[in-house]
Amino acid sequence: MMNLYSPLILASKSPRRQQLLKAAGFDFEIRTKDVNEDYPADLAAIEVAPFLAQKKADAFLPELDNEILLTADTVVIVDEQVLGKPADYNEAFEMIELMSGRTHLVCSGVCIADKSQKHIISDTTEITFKTFSKDEIDYYITNYKPYDKAGAYGIQEWIGMTGVTAMSGSFYNVAGLPVHKVYDILINNFQ
Prior knowledge:
Elements lengths: L7 E3 L4 H9 L5 E2 L14 H16 L7 E11 L2 E3 L5 H11 L3 E11 L4 E12 L4 H11 L13 H6 E5 L2 H5 L3 H11 L2
Parallel strand pairs: 1-2, 1-3
Antiparallel strand pairs: 3-4, 3-5, 5-6, 6-7
């Protein structure tokens, strides 16, 4: 495991973020709390994920002692519209149908902080989907239940394997954490 001067806290319920951070060689503790994920209506879509990552961090910072905190948020953007996590089957279907045969952006925001410093980063990946039939969309939602995923899909699942025709940027960013950027900040600023 990578040695950091202080213990690392991952403030995320996402099993994908936990898996990615562990695979990158970091030992960490998970802490979670519910944070209101509202953002200003006039905020540019590309700024939403870093804004929410910082908002999540601000909820934890007063409780930190000697720890390093990592918070993150990922959104999908289509036509400047932010797609978060779908509430139900119908919303998931609408989201995937909206992205079908088109290119969309996946933006992750990350905040890494301790008592003396705060680093806010973002990463954006461009994804192009093939045109999905209604049966394919139904199959994916019914079998994978992507209700905990921004944009109603996980790139590492069936829909990513069969439907992504082009990608520009980091695969791991789409999976929920721009590991290459997180690694650089942790190693260069907290070790």
